[in-house]
Amino acid sequence: MAESDEISETDQAPEGSEAPKTESAPGLDSPPVGIQERVDALLERLEPADRGTGSCVALLRSLPRGDDELWLWCLTEGVASSERLRAILPELPPPAIQERYTALSGRDTFRQAFGFKQTCLEQAPELDAATLDHARVLDFGCGWGRISLALLNQVDPERLSGADVLAEAIADCRERGMPIRLEQIEPLPPTVLDSGSFDLVLSYSVFSHLAERHFLAWMNEMYRLLRPGGRAFVTTRPREAIQWFEDLRHSGEIADYARGAASSFEDAEAAFATYDAGEFCFDPAGSGGDGLVGFYGEACVSLEYARRQLGSLFSHIDMVRFDQHHRFDQNLLVLTR
Length: 337
Fold this sequence. Notes:
This protein is an alpha/beta fold and 337 residues long. It has a single domain, classed as Rossmann fold (3-Layer(aba) Sandwich). Helix content is 39%, strand content 14%. It has 15 helices and nine strands. The chain has helices spanning 35-45, 56-62, 68-81, 83-88, 95-102, 106-122, 129-133, 146-151, 167-175, 212-225, 240-249, 259-262, 268-276, 303-310, 322-325, and strands at residues 137-140, 160-164, 181-184, 198-203, 226-236, 281-283, 298-300, 316-320, 331-336. The strands form two sheets. The chain has a seven-stranded mixed sheet with strand order 3-2-1-4-5-9-8, with helices on both faces. 48% of the residues are buried.
């Protein structure tokens, strides 16, 4: 989702403020030699009727499934250098709009999106290319659509949905030609989406910002939306974020987009004690206005808390820590219905 009286992928703090540096997903640091020629060959094979505006789905279905190097190049260097790709692929928002959500833009924000996607899929090795191509997937908190775009070389666009509470985010995705189902939702569930309608739900940097009431309400909705055996992948702030925000407060000049994080968990000792007791650790200080005050801020959620509170819903709950995947500065909760 995005920012406002609504749940969102938006980070008021920079991704990684005072956090350890993260690594890119395998093969995403720089484009390999010959990739433009490969894309040109794919474009040439499109039928003449598919070569103009609106042929995004035709191109997607011609892509090698799961070739993240090629797809990342298409979304970044490709659209910058090729008029034909720009005519086919969804338009990207200006860098300032991209940065509003995660303080990143261009290849950096997509490397993070692809790293998140790859980390999720590594937790479900049974999802081979054929299975994933036919999976029904929800990007919960889609914002301007970077996670959805990262998924589109592996998930059929007709089976991919994006949901956000921000009307402007959904309208923007539609105007830019995102070829997926888009749904504006309310700040609290239920949604109009059908029960058991998704195999996978992915949510980056949404549950890491919700107050407990909203966190639990949306977890119940995740359960309702997933088919039996389906999985939800949601990120949460790690325990270490409490110290990162403390360090940020004492770092000198603080960027505007980091002020929310810097004002969070000012009583770090109390926050650590709450987290270590297995309780929900939340500070609304980073909500930044826009109607978010009271339920949107910074949330550090432990595996102990998740298992205790959500164990009656999900058959299996696990966590991949940020210092295990090294791709973004949040932990990944894996919940199986």
